[in-house]
């Protein structure tokens, strides 16, 4: 039974560059058509022969605006973001050539030689009777076996997080992480002719599809769970008929919100399709933010509010009927809301730190070496400015180096300048490394340094001797620490 109302389905807009128009609905004639901030160094070699990029790298905003051109940023967030899909059909050979350079089927042979593993780097799958069938082998990926499964079993190759290997995707996604303030991952899907890799499903991320090679036939359906928080497969009898149907060609871009049910296949007459899915905003909702900041707000309020420190009733945890307690909790929440109105800073317990420590390092240009301090050493009479502001945060936390019961608060500056590109979005490996004592990139300062740090963060430039700290020695030590981590430069 279809869950769609019998009213007119929501509109998805399709645009050709310079000629906006409504996208064809299912069955129509068009259904088968459907200045770098700090170039200090570069860590890997850029792919040779890359076509001229249509992406403008002047700023994170310009990168995003380039991707959604000709739609303006304001229009996108007003009309489409979290609301409805957007299809951009581009009959532009230069854009198609650039998209193709991001990842190609022919790249797989060289990438397999670098030591890829099934499951971690590559999945081999098919959609069989509405279900995903995984055809992975064990251990390292063999290119010959990969090609055999692709050709003979009509299997889709899902390549995880290609920005770990492809410089231009690294460059794009790093800027998008700056733009959104959220992790940005990607997967490449390569599907042979008349095949489908995944069953109808919805995702818990905002999705941008870039068609790189061949053509892909897409069907979109009305969400059963708008702005979904989890991935889920949906059965054909539950989702009903597609609201929209179209074919992506090289250079085309498709956006749809999390929760949008979708499926895609490579149509007859097309040898294979390659597209990259760039995704963001996983677990980045107001609900997630509340879960993150409320514990700190309660902790700070309880220091001053005796009522919050009084005991809960005896045997409350064993009671079934807790109506009286919920009324008390409601009263506490109203008090917290009142306090929140006058709070200038919120203590994020995890979200800010997790983002900075797990995001991509900056794309830096032409050197293969690690990022190291450069230029003059900062002195008391030096004028300095912050570098890589998009890659650093300031937080106030209990002293991590003091295990006493009453730990004083300290200032921590975390940054992503030394993050591992190779481990970006690799989940369990990062968690395992953290448990093994992997390095956290950051600095620790006394709470008295907070005003000076805010000066550096909010000023275009600042003189060291004008920093709001009591002694000259502390001023010099502060800026030297920041300089050592490549966070400031001397003008």
UniProtKB/TrEMBL annotation:
Gene Ontology, cellular component aspect: nucleolus
Highest taxon of source: Eukaryota
Cofactor stoichiometry and binding remark: Binds 1 Fe(2+) ion per subunit.
Predominant location category: nucleus
Domain JmjC span(s) in chain numbering: 161-293
UniProt xrefs under InterPro entries: JmjC_dom, NO66-like, ROXA-like_wH
Subcellular localization: Nucleus, Nucleolus
Protein name: Bifunctional lysine-specific demethylase and histidyl-hydroxylase
Organism listed in the record: Alligator sinensis (Chinese alligator)
